[in-house]
UniProtKB/TrEMBL annotation:
This is XRE family transcriptional regulator. The lineage of its organism: Bacteria, Pseudomonadati, Pseudomonadota, Alphaproteobacteria, Sphingomonadales. GO terms for molecular function: DNA binding; DNA-binding transcription factor activity. Keywords: DNA-binding, Transcription, Transcription regulation. One of its GO terms (cellular component) is cytosol. PROSITE patterns: HTH_CROC1. Pfam families: HTH_3, Peptidase_M78, ScfRs.
Length: 463
């Protein structure tokens, strides 16, 4: 089979502009002629393997992003949106969609964003994501939730702490004491009823809630170290994001602090080796690195280092009502993290009924794509036994086509075994005859047949 040619003009042009180079200067750096580079940038010539390698080596660019886009769900996601009945009269073909994504990925991403927000508005305005949260999520996905500078700094610090011996929490506590004159105090929950961590610079103390479990206690101590020792790297990333709102900048800063803390607990190279050696055994990884399930799940979405990649996982965290409070697509481009509606047939909801278990599920979307997901319920950090306990379901997933190395997928024919047919929420799902359907799909007229009642509450005009 002939190798697929890669046209990635906008991506190459973006690399050049970010580097502040003219076409002539970049062509010289790539050892090609300016006229050839001009043709590449206008998608009139495909990228050769040699040029791709030189871009990666000389500009630190992730070669896997060449020709990629920022449309959630990638090419399949864009095709799914354009398959909406509202565009049926336009006769948009698959080749036309692919050309749009190749030649103008930014406008395709803008269309996808507007389409998704229009869908949310058609359901209910209350379901739309808060603007500052949406801005931060877009900034995270722009980096595919991999911040190379933070990972490198955290790995360097982790090696230093490892040489100091002892458990990680103890070595972090000692570093805070000896280098920053900060002591750690564990305070009763009634003294800190609404706080997990409190850094009091005046008293030179880091105060932690006694309800924190060991993994969370280490994480909060690591987060404090991140605030101090990774401040320059974090401030640079926040400034580069150029948020319009202060609240968004602070949310992004918090994400980066927590990113560094997780990277300190699970240093990149050691964690990736453990993932490969254990078949991404989530519970074993928890024990090996002294981390929580949610911390491991989030770390899996960050393994995008050039030359040392892990599986492209996505992560989702929902509450009992199905509302997503964390969703990272990473490099997966999975549509399962799009929007805030979830299919009730998806096994992520079952995790609440099976505490302590990892619920594996092979699901199939309407476009035929399959995803292998693993979900587990987790308690909120510092949760008490009084009142209604705060619980979430955390889910990680990967494209079924590449899920075979996962120990949880062993023995499953991922492409031929029966899979749970799910949609992306009732308003975006056009499957007929679904007994769980709560609302009709967008853009589909309802159909009524006198004297009949189907298994679904809504019958509508199909394809």
């Amino acid at each position: 089979m002939a190798e697929r040619r890669v046209f990635a003009g906008p991506a190459v042009r973006k690399v050049r502009r970010e580097a502040g180079l003219t076409q002539a200067a970049m062509a010289d750096a790539l050892d090609i002629s300016p006229s050839y580079l001009n043709l590449i940038e206008h998608s009139q010539r495909p990228l050769s393997a040699t040029v791709i390698v030189r871009l990666a080596e000389r500009f630190g660019f992730d070669a896997a992003k060449l020709g990629a886009d920022e449309v959630p769900g990638g090419l399949a996601g864009l095709r799914r949106r354009l398959a909406d009945p509202r565009f049926a009269d336009l006769g948009i073909g698959a080749q036309e969609v692919e050309e749009w994504l190749q030649t103008a990925p930014a406008t395709a991403a803008a269309f996808a964003r507007l389409f998704d927000r229009a869908g949310d508005a058609a359901t209910t305005p209350a379901m739309a994501e808060a603007p500052e949260v949406d801005a931060v999520r877009r900034a995270i996905e722009k980096w595919r939730n991999h911040f190379a500078d933070l990972d490198a700094r955290a790995e360097e610090l982790a090696d230093e702490l490892r040489l100091a011996g002892g458990d990680l929490y103890g070595t972090i506590a000692e570093r805070l004491r000896s280098r920053h004159q900060l002591g750690i105090r564990i305070l009763p929950s009634d003294v800190m009823p609404d706080r997990l961590r409190w850094l009091d610079w005046h008293a030179r103390q880091l105060m932690l809630n006694e309800l924190l479990r060991p993994a969370s206690r280490t994480f909060q101590a690591a987060a404090t170290l991140a605030q101090i020792e990774a401040k320059a790297e974090i401030d640079a990333l926040v400034a580069g994001a150029e948020f319009a709102e202060t609240a968004a900048a602070r949310l992004f800063e918090r994400h980066l602090i927590h990113y560094f803390a997780a990277a300190l607990m699970m240093p990149y190279s050691r964690f990736l080796r453990a993932c490969d050696a254990t078949g991404y055994d989530l519970l074993l990884l928890q024990r090996r690195f002294g981390a929580g399930f949610e911390q491991v799940a989030h770390r899996l979405t960050t393994l995008q280092r050039v030359g040392a990649r892990g599986q492209p996982f996505f992560m989702l965290r929902i509450d009992r009502a199905g509302q997503g409070s964390k969703r990272y697509a990473g490099a997966s481009q999975s549509p399962l993290v799009d929007g805030d509606a979830r299919c009730p047939l998806w096994g992520v909801h079952e995790a609440f009924a099976r505490p302590g278990e990892v619920v594996a599920d092979l699901v199939e979307l309407e476009d035929g794509s399959r995803w292998f997901t693993q979900s587990r319920s987790v308690a909120a950090p510092g949760a008490t036994g009084s009142g209604t306990p705060a619980r979430f379901a955390v889910c990680v997933g990967v494209d079924a086509k590449i899920a075979a190395p996962l120990i949880a997928a062993r023995g499953i024919d991922l492409m031929r075994s029966p899979a749970t047919p799910i949609g992306l929420g009732c308003r975006r799902c056009t499957r007929t005859g679904c007994v769980q359907r709560s609302m009709p799909p967008l853009g589909r007229p309802l159909r009524f047949r006198e004297g009949e009642r189907g298994v679904s509450a809504f019958d509508f005009v199909g394809d």
